[in-house]
TrEMBL record:
It comes from the Bacteria. This is Sigma-70 family RNA polymerase sigma factor. The keyword Transcription regulation applies. The keyword Transcription regulation applies.
């Protein structure tokens, strides 16, 4: 559950929403007719279920927003993030400043520790695409950290 919540947080930027998506994903997984038997297959499958729940919610939100606009009502989302240390806050800000694609791949590979093959299964793209995205996302993160003059992330040699 903590890893699933971490992944959904990378998608949503909102811990409460992420926890709801993670719980819905687990419910959906428990109701599934076909569940992978192997643990190495189950984990990426569950992340894929979570991403589908996220996508479904975003579609529903879009429909609600369009309805609200026609009725003259706009909804607002406020994201509050806190951090215990300045450096952690800066790293978090740099991470959240990345595009959603970069955040997603860094979460799967660097934070949750999925293999490239598992991440490819979750996102449903070829492994080569995963490798390219990881490289671009890490470079973008380093650039943002350099802009802030903070260096907790170093290039692997």
């Amino acid at each position: 559950m903590p890893e699933l919540t971490a992944y959904t947080t990378s998608l949503t930027h909102n811990r409460v929403e992420a926890e709801g998506i993670a719980q819905d994903a687990i419910l959906r997984a428990l109701e599934a007719r076909s569940i992978p038997k192997n643990l190495s297959e189950l984990r990426p499958w569950l992340f894929r279920v979570a991403k589908n729940v996220f996508i479904d919610r975003k579609r529903k939100e879009r429909v609600r927003r369009e309805y609200s606009r026609t009725e003259g009502r706009l909804s607002e989302n406020v994201i509050n993030q806190t951090s215990n240390t300045v450096q952690a806050l800066i790293v978090r800000q740099a991470y959240y400043a990345l595009g959603s694609r970069d955040r997603e791949i860094l979460c799967l590979i660097d934070i949750l520790g999925l293999t490239y093959a598992q991440a490819a299964e979750v996102i449903d793209v070829p492994i080569g695409t995963i490798m390219s995205r990881v490289s671009r996302a890490r470079r973008a993160m380093r650039e943002r950290m350099d802009d802030l003059n903070v260096h907790p992330i170093r290039k692997k040699r």
